[in-house]
Design a protein that fits this description.
Elements lengths: L2 E9 L2 E10 L4 E6 L8 H9 L5 E11 L9 E5 L1 H17 L8 H5 L5 E5 L4 H71 L6 H15 L2 H20 L4 H21 L3 H21 L4
Parallel strand pairs: 3-4
Antiparallel strand pairs: 1-2, 2-4, 5-6
Length: 292
Amino acid sequence: MTGYGRGEVVVNGLRLAAEVRSVNHRFCELSARLPRALAAYEAEARKIIQDRTQRGKINLLVSWGDDGEEGREPLGSLKLDERVADSYMEILASMKRKYNLSGDVDLKTFAALPSIFVWTEAGRDAEFYVSLLRDVVGRATDDLIRMKETEGSALRKDLEARIDSIRRRVVTVRERAPLKVRETMERFRERIQLLLQGGELPEERLAQEVALLSDRLDATEECVRLESHCDHFMKLLDEEATPGRKLNFLLQEMNREINTIGSKCSDVAIVEQVIEVKEELERIREQVQNIE
């Protein structure tokens, strides 16, 4: 299920913000980007999100900002590593003399050299950073869950409407199917009489053939099972915390029943209902992929 959440906390004039984005995915896949000062506590941030989500491709971004207040206490500082810088300059000067090279190193090139700068952390204990990260990620996750719940309510209404549509169409099939059986048996009887050309067919034999024909054309059992599956579908939505996988299996059974009904009934009116039910089931299947 898609969703977005954001949380913020302000500490000593600095604003720490967390953004959580989630898109549909079969499993729970989480990626995270944290500031250097908080990178060591990424596992804590991951646990907060994973404890409250079951599925989705989730991206977590935590960043520092400035709220414009004066007198804030920095959480760290960026400094030039003069020892590394001096070594770079000595090596470059040596290469220039030895190989008779021309040109100078400008500021942009020099600043891009690896390890030229070092980040110095402020004097804070681990619990301070962990509590700060838990707070901001927790707020962003709460916001994400609220958005998912809103989307979930809309998704539930859509699923309920489609299941009701399937029920109505199955009722139509159940009402039409016996009429189709009787019509088929009457045509069968007429054809037999025509083939016999006035002769008589033993009633016992005719009854056997009609019974076999009726059994092949009768879709009552399939309709009953399909209606039962609809009831079970709604029960899972009401009772299961994470019904997505079970609903997928149930939809397979529903597809099997409607395919059997379609193969038994060649009546145009019934075939139309079968096609509509298949379309509804396909739409439900697509929606079920979003359920956690």
